[in-house]
Amino acid sequence: MQSLTFTCPDDWHLHVRDDRALNTVVPHSARQFARAIIMPNLKPPITTAAMALAYRRRILEAVPEENHFEPLMTLYLTESTTHDDVRAAAESPYIHAFKLYPAGATTHSDAGVKRLDRIFPILETMQRLDLPLLVHGEKTDPEIDLFDREKAFIDDELTSIIKRFPALRIVFEHATTRDAVQFVTEAAPNIAATITPQHLLYNRNALFEDGIRPHRYCLPILKRETYRKALIAAATGESRKFFLGTDSAPHPQQLKESSCGCAGCYTAHAALELYAELFEKAGALDKLEGFASFYGPDFYRLPRNSGTITLEKRPWQVPAHYPFADQTLIPLKAGECLAWKCIGKSEAPPAS
Ligand code: DOR
Ligand code: ZN
């Protein structure tokens, strides 16, 4: 049987939610990844170091005993974020970045930023204290076509942020377009991007395959095939600016399968298996380790993991659903067959 062993990976963009939901989703991630950047878009959002540290403890309680898993916390940037908030984050060994949600861009983004110039003084402090900015890169003006929001954000917002704060480390989260790939590739080394499995797997036709597919709906929305190909080329190419970030975003079945369904694909149940299949199809399995395990920690200036992960080429069927607090969670590719199966991590001491 073909098998694959490489340095233990990390997930650089993950939603785990809170309370009892943690008990389903945290073990899925902890089985495959050593660390994950935890998104702060709870209700209310995680805006202070104290909130992040309490949230981190709740996440750790949901980690199975047999796994090491380190949640890397982030804070939600608002127009009320203070310089003291930034300083407290910079001083904490557990907080690694701020997340910028333009208001209205996605799930729980109503507390996000309406006018970017209002947070420029905060970005200045982040730049000085070397705290990375993670961006949901979509411009939300209602007259901008949904499929053009990413390019509009790059042209109208990101370019000026970078000009004003040239040393600020920025992760362009969940890149979905050729424009984003090109922009990040040509930008300075302090600008990088994460790429999700769903944007590598599907083009926008997949939203309407034999009917509407709510479990493939996420934001930024799936894009055209030429863009999917550009993402595959970026993820499997030579650049060290693109790394793994699942954006796994669980929602209860009834909120997805609804007349106004919410955005988010759940992929943590099979994250690495999905990426492995994609990299294999692209003839680039040898590039998976860099994307999944090296370029992320290098960008965040954290040590690479010392343990390993093993996958076997062994077909398995994704469960139709998982329990999710007292509700149900439908994973991406529910009921479908995947080619690779994650056997587990070797539990070397966690990276510090
Ligand atoms: O599809 C998404 N779901 N995109 C996001 O940016 C947020 C996420 C969520 O939290 O559900
Ligand atoms: Zn996200």
Overview of the structural elements:
The chain is an alpha/beta fold. The protein has a single domain, classed as Metal-dependent hydrolases (TIM Barrel), CATH 3.20.20. The strands form three sheets. An eight-stranded parallel sheet has the order 2-3-4-5-6-7-8-9. It has a three-stranded antiparallel sheet with strand order 1-10-13. A two-stranded antiparallel ribbon has the order 11-12. Strand 7, helix 6 and strand 8 form a beta-alpha-beta unit. The chain is globular, with a radius of gyration of 19 Å. The two termini are 34 Å apart. 48% of the residues are buried. The mean pLDDT is 96. The chain binds (4S)-2,6-dioxohexahydropyrimidine-4-carboxylic acid and zinc ion (ZN). The site of zinc ion has 5 residues, from loops.
Key terms:
single chain, 352 residues, alpha/beta, eight-stranded parallel beta sheet, three-stranded antiparallel beta sheet, 13 strands, globular, binds zinc ion
Strand order of the largest sheet: 2-3-4-5-6-7-8-9
Low-confidence stretches: none
If you average the pLDDT, what whole number results? Answer: 96
Tally of separate domains: 1
Binned strand content = 15-25%
Helix and strand run? EEHEHEHEHEHEHEHHEHHHEEEE
CATH superfamily annotation: Metal-dependent hydrolases
Specify the helix fraction band: 25-40%
Ligand roster: (4S)-2,6-dioxohexahydropyrimidine-4-carboxylic acid, zinc ion
The beta-strand count equals: 13
Q: Rounded to an integer, what's the Rg over CA atoms? A: 19 Å
CATH architecture assignment: Alpha-Beta Barrel
Structural class: alpha/beta
Give the N-to-C terminal Cα separation.
34 Å
Task: Look at the structure and give the CATH class.
Answer: Alpha Beta
Shape assignment: globular
| H/I helix tally | 11
CATH topology: TIM Barrel
